[in-house]
Amino acid sequence: MRKQFLTLTVMTLAATSALAADRLNPADLRRVTKARESLVPAVAKEFGPKARFIHLFGQGQGMLAGVVAEIPAEPLGTDELPLLAIVRYDESTGAVRMVAREFKYREARSVGTDVALLEGDGTLRMRDAHGQDRLLARGVGGDLFPTAKGDALVATLLMNSEGPHETAVGLIDLQGRVKVLADGPGVDATPSISPDGKTVVFVSGRTSVASFYVTNVEGAPARQLTNVGLENWMLFGGPPKEFVPPPVSTHHMEWLNEDVLRYNAGGGAFWKLNVRTGHAAPDVGGEP
User: Residues 201, 154: contact at Cβ < 8 Å?
Assistant: First the structure.
C-alpha cells in the first residue's frame, strides 16, 4: 500500500459548493468532509464564530491548517492573500491543537519535528517542539514543500532585481542555506520534490503558457514536460485538447511514486503527471 499524501482542495466557501463536491472523486470528498467535521468546531472555539480555516498544508499527523479571522467581505486580488493563524490537524485521530495563534502567516508546513512558518513579508522561520523560533531565510515567496526526510524544503523565491513578479525555485536546508535550482524569465514557482529527494518539478510561464518543468536538486537545466509548443494565443476561446492545466498550489500535490505526481488543477479536478515522460491525464478515479 503506497504512502498516503494529502490531496485536499483549498478550503474556501466556494470549495464546499455542490459543483466542487460533484467534481471531487469519492476518496477526496470523504477526506474533505472528515477534515471539516473536526476543524470547523475547533476553529470556532479557539478563534470565535467568524473565524474560518481556508487552507490545509501537509498530511497525516503533520497536517496543518491555516485560519483567517473572518472571510473578507469583498473578493481579494491575487496578491492580497489574508494572513493566517496556524493549527495542527491529525488526519488519523481528528485532534486539533494550536501552533501559532497570531494572524501573521502566509503558509506553514511540518518539516520533520519542526514547523516552517512563512510570515507575510517573506521571512521564513522554523519553530521547534518547544515553541522556539529561529530565522531560516528571507525573500521567500511561498509554495513550501518539504522533503520526505524532513531535512530541507523547496520553495518559490522572490527575485527582487526584476520586480515583484520575478520568482525562482530554490532549495532551503535546515541551516538556512538557499540554493537556486531554476530561474528563467518571469515566474518559476509551485515546486514539489520527489520522495527520494532528487527530482524537483515546478511550474513556469517562460513560454507564455503555464507549464510543468523538471530539474533536480543539483540545479540541472530545466526541461519542459507539458504544453510543449503551445503559445498563449492558442488558448483564446478555450484551451486545446492537449493543454495540461497547472496545479492550484504545492499544497494540492502528492507523489504516487518516484515518477508520478498527482495534483489538483482547480475546481476539484485532479490530474496525474509522469515526471519522466511528461505524459499527463485527468485522474477520474479515486481510492475505494
Answer: no
C-alpha distance from residue 109 to each of 82, 200, 250 (Å): 17, 18, 11
Q: Please tell me the total number of residues recorded for the chain in this structure.
A: 288
Q: Give which of 62, 52, 14, 56 is closest to 32, Cα–Cα.
A: 56
Amino acid at 98: M
Query: Degrees (nearest 5) of the Cα angle 54, 107, 159?
Result: 130
- Name 38's Cβ contacts closer than 8 Å, sequence gap at least 6: 89, 94, 95, 96
If you count DSSP H runs as helices and E runs as strands, how many of each does the chain have, helices first? 2, 19
Q: Which three cell numbers stand for residue 215?
A: 530539474
Q: How far is CA 132 from the centre of its chain?
A: 25
Q: Are 186 and 207 in contact (CB under 8 A)?
A: no
The per-residue pLDDT string of the chain (288 residues; one tens digit each, 9 = 90 and over) reads 223 323 332 322 223 333 344 556 677 778 888 999 999 999 999 999 999 998 889 877 889 999 999 988 777 665 567 899 999 999 889 999 999 999 999 999 999 889 999 999 999 999 998 999 999 999 999 999 999 999 999 999 997 655 555 899 999 999 999 999 999 888 999 999 999 999 999 999 999 999 999 999 999 999 999 999 998 888 888 889 899 999 988 887 889 999 999 998 887 788 999 999 999 999 876 443
Residue 88's H or E segment, with its range, is strand 84-89
